[in-house]
Amino acid sequence: MAVAFSRRKVLQALGAAAVLPAAAYAQDWPQRPLKIVVPVAAGGASDRLARLLATGLARELGQPVVVENRGGAGGTLGAAAVAKAPADGYTLLFTGAFNTINPYLYAKLPYDYVNDFVHVAPMTQGPNVLVVRPDFPATTLAEFVAQAKAQPGRVDFASGGNGTSGHLAMEVFQRAAGIQLNHIAYKGAAPALQDVLGGTVRVMALNQDTALPHLKGGRLRALAVSSAQRNPALPEVPTFAEAGYPDMVITSWAGLDAPKGTPQAVIDRLAAASAKVARSPEVRQPLAADGWMPFDDTPAAFDAFVRQEAQRWGRVIQAAQIRIE
């Protein structure tokens, strides 16, 4: 019995010794500036959201937080750089729905998005809005579906490119409604929107923050939003689910990732700080004005959400046979 007791004590001591360095590291972390890599160019929604988060994290963590834009290849270049970075909590990835889409669009990626990152904390989410020009004959979603069924393949819709959130939302909608639309892919959301405003194409699915000023100005009309509940910034616009399409609960979301292997105590501190920032009036008020909705969850729940999103988009992309080489 004395031998067994002694061996158990030794094992407990060894376990405690293994935990101490990580705990001590987390207690001292951070001791230098952090970097959040935004895998898209400056000036867009992701960049703005990341800078709001970075400002708040700097306040909470007591160290500067630098935003580095590293765009290219649909966000995969920036994600690849963070996947290879040291797992020390100092290099982070500002993530979004596109990261759960890219693995199914690109034939070969140098990382596994779901498994090579710790999905630390969500920040916010917003719906797609099905918009039409004011001169489009359908004024409700039911009328739009009826027109599409009467003219299969002849109703055009624009998107910012193959595999973008607006494109995939419309792919899901076509299957849910039993309609066939004609997809016109542009090289970016800006030229697509410009052609919709100009009347070249009259239908598009837009992120709510992009759609809002044009809806308020009367240049576009909203038929439905893809959130589970009506968006407070567009209270008069029904959801797809209200119209009988429960599969059309689709949001563009944003959050924070860290390289796999980052100490759990650092992850916990990052998650707590990110959640506090996302709840603060300095962040929540400007986000709400642009139609963004709260998205608050634990690292474990956020990880499960990311995995579900990846599985969903994998099925949609494979069924639609969408690919980017």
UniProtKB/TrEMBL annotation:
Domain of life: Bacteria
Keyword Signal assigned: yes
SUPFAM superfamilies in UniProt: Periplasmic binding protein-like II
Entry-linked InterPro entries: BUG, Bug_dom1, TAT_signal
Homology family: Belongs to the UPF0065 (bug) family.
Lineage: Bacteria, Pseudomonadati, Pseudomonadota, Betaproteobacteria, Burkholderiales
Signal sequence, start to end: 1-26
Pfam families xref list: TctC (PF03401)
Protein name: Tripartite-type tricarboxylate transporter receptor subunit TctC
Keywords: Receptor, Signal
